[in-house]
Write a structure and sequence with these properties.
The complex is a heterotrimer of chains A (280), B (431) and C (300). Chain A has 280 residues and is mainly alpha-helical. Chain A is built from 14 helices and no strands. Chain B has a 5-stranded mixed beta sheet. The chains are: A mainly alpha (280), B alpha+beta (431), C mainly alpha (300). At the A-C interface, helix 1, helix 4, helix 5, helix 6 and helix 8 of A face helix 2, helix 5, helix 6, helix 9 and helix 11 of C.
C-alpha cells in the first residue's frame, strides 16, 4: 500500500467516526421522545426520569390517536401542506429568476424591499393581516393559510436568487442567441440546474407547513379544520389541569415520522451533484 | 413608462381594497348560535360537549358552539376583537381592562338579565360568590366554582416523623407559621453529606396566598394602590423565601422546575404543598396516603380562592340573551355535576356542597375533603380573598423582583418597597 | 433627453418581463404585506388597546422608548445573542455541511439524522433542553465529570443567556441544508483543476469552495442576522424572559407590550426601531458584499 492510500483510508475512518459519534448524540432527543411516549402514567412523573419503559406502553399511541379526531387532522395537514408547497416553489422560482437575471431600473430597490418585508417582526402585522382576511370572509377557511404561498415568500426568493446567480451567464446568452425567450430560459435551463436549491425550498416549505400551528390557531375556529400541529397542542392543557406527557410524546413521534421519511427519500435527489461542466 | 406601471399598480391596489371592504353576507336564520371560546384540551373538550348537549336539551332554540383554543388564547381573541368578530363569550384577563377603565367596553354587564332570570337560584349560591365577577358594583359573569388554597400533606411522612396532623394542630388552634416551620424541620430528610433527599415543602401557590395567610392585604379595593410597605405583606414573602434561604427545607428556585411541584409531592419527594382542588384528580394514583388541611395562618389571616371563572359576554355580541342563558346555566346544579365530575373544582352551590358524592368520585377524595368548603366562608367574606385584578405589566414587575427575593439577592422588604411607585403608576394608568 | 427615450426597445421588453416574473411577489406585497406594514407605522404614532379607537400621540411612543429601561435591556440582550449566535451557527452549519458532503456510505441516513433536530416539535425540544440545563441535568453531569462545580444554568442571571445561545446551535439544520445544496452545485472540475495545480486542502477551500459558496454564505449571513434579531421562542418557552430580565429578548418584550399589556402602538414603535436596526445591519452586509461575494454571473 502506498502512502496516499493509507492517508485516504485514515481520512475516511476519521470521517466515519465523527459522523457516527455525532449522530449518536443527535439521536438522543429522538430516542428520548420515543421512550417517553411509551411510559406509563406512573413512570411519567418519576425523578430522575425513566429511560426504558417497562413494559413499553404501545397503547399510548392508540389512545392518543383516539382521544381526538386525528384522522381528520391528518387529512387537513396533507391538504394544507400540498396546497402550500407547490405554489410556493413555483412562485418563488419565477420571482427569483426575475431578480437574478432580468434587468430593470427598479430591480435592486425592489429586491431590497422584498428583503425588508422580513425585517418587521410578525407580531405587529398579525392583527392587521387578520383584519384583512376577515374582511375577505376567509377566516375559518384554509384560504388565509394557502393563498399567501401563491405570492412567493421573500426568504425563498432570496435563497433561489443566490443560487441562480451562481449559474454562468454564458448559458442564457447562448440560449438567447438561439432565440430562446426569457420564460424558456427559466424553464429549460434554470429550473433543471437549480434542482438542489428547489428541493431545499420544497423541503423547507413542507416542514414549515407541516409544523405550522400559529397560522391555523389564529385563522381556524372549528376543531374539525385543525391540522396535526394544532391538534397536538390540545394535549397540552392550559394551567392547572393534568398534562398527559406520554400522549404528547406519542403524538409528537407520530407527527415527526412523515417529514423524516420524506426527507430521507428526497434528500439524495435534491442534494445531488449536478454536472454543470457538461454545458461548457 | 415608470409612471404607467405605477398607475396600473395603484388601480390594482384600489380595486383590491374595494374587494376587501365589500359588505359581508349576513348569516341565515336558524337556531341561535352562541360562540363560546375557552382554553383547554382533551379532557375539558368532553366535559364542554356534555354541557352543551345538556344545555341544548333544556334550551332547544340555542346551540352552543365551543371553540377550544389550546394555546395562545389571548392572542387569538385579541385578533378577533380587533376585527370585531369576537366569540360571544370570552375569557380575557379582567384586570387588564379594569385598570384601563374599559371593562364595560369589552364585556356586557349582566345585572339586568340576572334580575329577570327565573332559573338562577341566587339563594343556592354561596354568599359572596357573585363578588368574584363584580367590578365597581357591576356584575359581568357568575363564578361557578371555588378554588380554595389548602395544604396538601403526606400522611405517611408525618406519621413517620411522629407529628400530629395539621388538622389536629388546627383543631388545637396552634396551626401558625412557627408550628409549620417546626414541622418542616422535622420532615426534611438529608443524607450523610447533608444533601436533601426529601423536601418538607414545595412552593406552588402564588405569593398572594402567603400574604393573605399572614393577614396582609396587598392592594386596596379598586386596585389603584399597593400596600407592599405593610410588614404583613413583605414578612409573608420573606417567611417563604427563608424556607429555602435559611432553613433549607424547600427546594431552591432552580430545582423547582426539575423536580416538579405537585409531581414531587405525588412521588413522595416532598411532604407538603399548598394548592387548590384540581390537584385531587392529579393525585389519584399517588402511592402514599395524603390528606388536606387548612393552611397555617397568622392572626387575621385567611386562605384565598383561585380560578373558577368562565369569562363574560362580549360587548359586541348579537345574541346577548342566549349568551347569558349559557352563563346562567353553568351555575346550575346540573351543570356543576357534569363539570365537577372531572375533579377540577368545588361547586359554589350550597345544594351540592353537602353532597360531594353526587359530583365526585368518593374513592379518590382525601379524608378531610370538607376543608375546601370549611374555608369558603372566610375566603368569601368581603373584601374577597382572590388573585388580584391587576395589569399583567404590574405582575411582570413584581415577578421579576421576586426572582431576586427567592434567591436572597434582595430582602423582601427592600425589593417590594422599591417597586411601590412603579407598581402604583401602572395600577393607576394601566400601562 | 430623458432616460426613458434612450432605452432601447429590447431593454424595455426586458423590463416588462422583469415585472411579469416578479409579479407573484409584487402582488403579494401590495395586497397582503403593504397594508399591515403601513398600519403598523401609523399605529406606532398612536395608542391603541384594540377596544377603543386608536388615539394619535405623535412621537410619544418613541420618546417613551428612550427612557424605557427594559427597551435598552432587551436591546442589549438581543444584540449579545445576535453577535454570538450568528457567526458561531454559520461556522457550525458550514462545517457540518462539509462533512455531509463526503462520499461515504449511508450518507443519506447521516444527513437525515443531522436534520432531525430541526424537525422535532418545539414542545419536545424545549422540554429536552430544560432537562439538559436542570441542576441535576445532562450538562451538569458532564461539568462535574470534568471536575468543575455544577451550575444553575437557566436560573442564574449570568448564565441564562449563554445557555440559550448554546441552545440556538440546535437550529443549524436549515442553513446546513442550504450549504449542502451550495456545495453540491460547485462544479467538480474546479477541484480537479486545483488538484492538478497541486493545491492543498486549505487552498482548495479558500480558492474554490469559499468563492463558489460565497453567494450562499451571504444568504445565510443575512438571514441569520434577520432571524436572530427576531429571536423569540427560547425566551418565551424556556426562561419566560427571566431570571430578572436576563433573557428578555427584544421581540419578547414587544410581544408582551402587544399581547399582554394591550399596547399595540408601543409595540409597533418597538417593531419599527428593530426594523431600522436590522436594515442598517443588512445594508452593511450588502455594501460589503462586492468585496467577498463572488457571482458567476456578475455583470457590473
Amino acid at each position: 500500500m502506498n502512502k496516499a492510500k493509507i492517508a485516504k483510508s485514515a481520512y475516511r475512518t476519521a470521517i466515519y467516526v465523527i459522523l457516527i459519534a455525532s449522530s449518536a448524540v443527535l439521536l438522543i432527543p429522538f430516542a428520548w421522545m420515543v421512550s417517553s411516549s411509551l411510559l406509563s402514567e406512573e413512570e411519567m412523573f418519576q425523578h430522575p426520569p425513566v429511560w426504558i419503559p417497562k413494559p413499553p406502553h404501545w397503547s399510548n399511541y392508540k389512545e392518543a390517536w383516539e382521544a381526538l379526531p386525528f384522522t381528520t387532522f391528518l387529512i387537513n395537514t396533507l391538504l394544507l401542506t400540498i396546497g402550500r408547497v407547490l405554489p410556493q416553489v413555483f412562485a418563488c422560482s419565477l420571482v427569483a429568476f426575475g431578480f437574478a437575471r432580468l434587468r430593470a431600473r427598479a430591480s435592486s430597490k425592489l429586491f431590497f424591499l422584498c428583503l425588508a418585508t422580513m425585517m418587521l417582526p410578525g407580531q405587529v402585522t398579525m392583527i392587521p393581516t387578520y383584519i384583512i382576511f376577515n374582511k375577505l370572509g376567509w377566516v375559518n377557511t384554509f384560504k388565509p393559510l394557502i393563498v399567501p404561498s401563491f405570492f412567493a415568500g421573500p426568504f425563498f426568493v432570496f435563497m433561489l436568487r443566490q443560487f441562480f446567480l451562481t449559474i454562468p451567464l454564458e448559458l442564457d446568452e447562448a440560449a438567447r442567441i438561439d432565440g430562446a425567450s426569457s420564460f424558456q430560459i427559466y424553464y429549460k435551463i434554470f429550473l433543471p440546474l437549480a434542482k438542489p436549491a428547489l428541493g431545499a425550498v420544497a423541503i423547507f416549505s413542507f416542514m414549515a407547513a407541516w409544523n405550522d400551528f400559529m397560522g391555523p390557531l389564529i385563522y381556524l375556529h372549528d376543531i374539525e379544520k385543525y391540522p396535526l400541529a394544532l391538534g397536538l397542542r390540545l394535549f397540552q392543557s392550559y394551567g392547572e389541569y393534568a398534562t398527559r406527557w406520554n400522549l404528547i410524546m406519542a403524538s409528537s413521534v407520530a407527527m415527526v415520522l412523515p417529514p423524516l421519511i420524506v426527507f430521507f427519500f428526497t434528500q439524495k435527489h435534491f442534494i445531488k451533484g449536478i454536472t454543470i461542466g457538461a454545458f461548457r | 413608462m415608470k409612471y404607467k406601471i405605477l398607475l396600473v399598480l395603484v388601480i390594482v391596489l384600489v380595486l383590491g381594497w374595494a374587494v376587501f371592504f365589500r359588505a359581508q353576507p349576513q348569516h341565515s336564520s336558524g337556531p341561535t348560535v352562541v360562540k363560546f371560546a375557552i382554553w383547554g384540551g382533551v379532557a375539558e373538550r368532553e366535559a364542554w360537549a356534555a354541557l352543551a348537549e345538556d344545555f341544548h336539551r333544556k334550551n332547544p332554540g340555542i346551540v352552543i358552539k365551543t371553540q377550544m383554543i389550546p394555546v395562545k388564547y389571548d392572542e387569538k381573541i385579541m385578533a378577533m376583537l380587533a376585527a370585531k368578530t369576537a366569540p360571544d363569550i370570552i375569557n380575557l384577563p379582567f384586570g387588564e381592562f379594569a385598570s384601563k377603565g374599559m371593562l364595560d367596553k369589552v364585556l356586557l354587564p349582566i345585572d339586568e338579565y340576572m334580575a329577570q332570570d327565573k332559573n338562577l337560584d341566587l339563594d343556592d349560591l354561596f354568599p359572596g360568590i357573585l363578588a368574584l365577577d363584580q367590578w365597581k358594583g357591576t356584575q359581568y359573569s357568575i363564578a361557578h366554582a371555588l378554588g380554595p388554597q389548602v395544604l396538601f400533606y403526606n400522611v405517611d411522612h408525618l406519621r413517620e416523623a411522629r407529628l400530629p396532623t395539621p388538622n389536629e394542630f388546627y383543631q388545637r388552634g396552634e396551626w401558625d407559621w412557627p408550628t409549620f416551620l417546626e414541622c418542616c424541620k422535622k420532615l426534611v430528610k438529608r443524607d450523610a453529606k447533608g444533601k436533601v433527599t426529601r423536601w418538607a415543602y414545595v412552593r406552588y401557590t402564588p405569593i398572594w396566598t402567603y400574604i393573605s395567610l399572614n393577614g396582609g392585604r396587598t392592594f386596596n379595593e379598586d386596585y389603584t394602590e399597593c400596600y407592599f410597605d405593610d410588614p404583613k405583606v413583605y414578612e409573608a414573602i420573606q417567611m417563604v423565601a427563608d424556607l429555602f434561604l435559611v432553613h433549607g427545607v424547600m427546594p431552591p428556585p432552580a430545582l423547582e422546575k426539575e423536580i416538579g411541584k405537585w409531581q414531587a409531592f405525588a412521588r413522595g419527594d416532598a411532604s407538603m404543598f399548598i394548592s387548590g382542588p384540581w390537584q385531587v384528580s392529579r393525585l389519584k394514583n399517588m402511592e402514599d396516603e395524603y390528606d388536606i388541611a387548612p393552611p397555617p395562618t397568622a392572626p387575621g389571616g385567611r386562605s384565598i380562592t383561585l380560578g373558577g371563572r368562565i369569562g363574560g359576554i362580549w360587548r359586541g355580541t348579537r345574541v346577548p340573551e342566549a349568551a347569558y342563558r349559557w352563563i346562567s346555566y353553568l351555575a346550575t346544579p346540573d351543570a356543576r355535576r357534569i363539570w365537577s365530575r372531572l375533579g377540577f373544582d368545588i361547586p359554589a352551590l350550597k345544594s351540592l356542597a353537602s353532597h360531594p358524592e353526587e359530583w365526585t368520585d368518593p374513592e379518590i377524595i382525601p379524608a378531610h375533603f370538607h376543608v375546601f368548603y370549611d374555608l369558603a366562608p372566610s375566603i368569601l367574606k368581603p373584601p374577597l380573598a382572590v388573585n388580584p385584578f391587576i395589569p399583567k405589566k404590574a405582575e411582570r414587575l413584581i415577578n421579576s423582583t421576586m426572582d431576586l427575593i427567592w434567591v436572597g439577592r434582595k430582602s423582601a422588604k427592600k425589593g417590594l418597597i422599591e417597586i411601590i411607585p412603579e407598581v402604583n403608576r401602572i395600577l393607576r394608568t394601566g400601562t | 433627453m430623458t432616460g426613458e427615450k434612450r432605452l432601447h426597445r429590447k431593454q424595455k421588453r426586458e423590463e416588462r418581463e422583469f415585472y411579469f416574473f416578479i409579479s407573484p411577489w409584487l402582488m403579494g406585497f401590495l395586497f397582503l404585506t403593504l397594508a399591515p406594514m403601513l398600519a403598523s407605522i401609523i399605529l406606532s404614532f398612536a395608542r391603541w388597546n384594540i377596544i377603543t379607537p386608536p388615539e394619535w400621540v405623535g412621537f410619544d411612543n418613541y420618546k417613551e422608548l428612550m427612557h424605557d429601561q427594559l427597551f435598552w435591556k432587551s436591546l442589549g440582550v438581543t444584540s449579545t445573542f445576535v453577535l454570538s449566535s450568528v457567526v458561531l451557527k454559520l461556522a457550525a452549519s458550514l462545517l457540518v455541511a462539509m462533512f455531509l458532503n463526503q462520499k461515504v456510505r449511508a450518507i443519506g441516513l447521516f444527513r437525515t439524522i443531522f436534520y432531525l433536530p430541526t424537525i422535532l416539535p418545539i414542545v419536545a425540544s424545549s422540554m429536552l433542553w430544560m432537562w439538559i440545563f436542570f441542576p441535576n441535568g445532562l450538562l451538569n453531569f458532564f461539568v462535574t465529570k470534568l471536575g468543575l462545580s455544577p451550575q444553575n444554568w437557566l436560573a442564574n442571571e449570568k448564565l441564562a443567556l449563554p445557555s440559550l445561545i448554546l441552545m440556538s446551535f440546535w437550529g443549524f439544520g436549515a442553513s446546513m441544508i442550504i450549504f449542502l445544496a451550495g456545495l453540491q452545485s460547485i462544479p467538480q472540475y474546479l477541484y480537479e483543476a486545483a488538484q492538478i495545480d497541486g493545491a492543498g486542502w486549505w487552498s482548495k477551500f479558500w480558492n474554490v469552495t469559499f468563492p463558489m459558496l460565497s453567494p450562499v454564505i451571504f444568504f445565510n449571513l443575512v438571514m441569520g442576522f434577520i432571524g436572530s434579531f427576531k429571536v423569540f421562542t427560547p425566551g418565551y418557552l424556556i426562561t419566560d424572559g427571566g431570571p430578572h430580565y436576563a433573557t428578555l429578548f427584544y421581540v419578547l418584550y414587544l410581544f408582551r407590550n402587544a399581547f399582554e399589556y394591550f399596547n399595540l402602538g408601543y409595540a409597533s414603535a418597538l417593531a419599527w426601531i428593530l426594523f431600522f436596526i436590522i436594515m442598517a445591519f443588512t445594508l452593511l452586509i450588502i455594501k460589503s458584499s462586492p468585496l467577498w461575494v463572488y457571482y458567476e454571473a456578475e455583470r457590473r
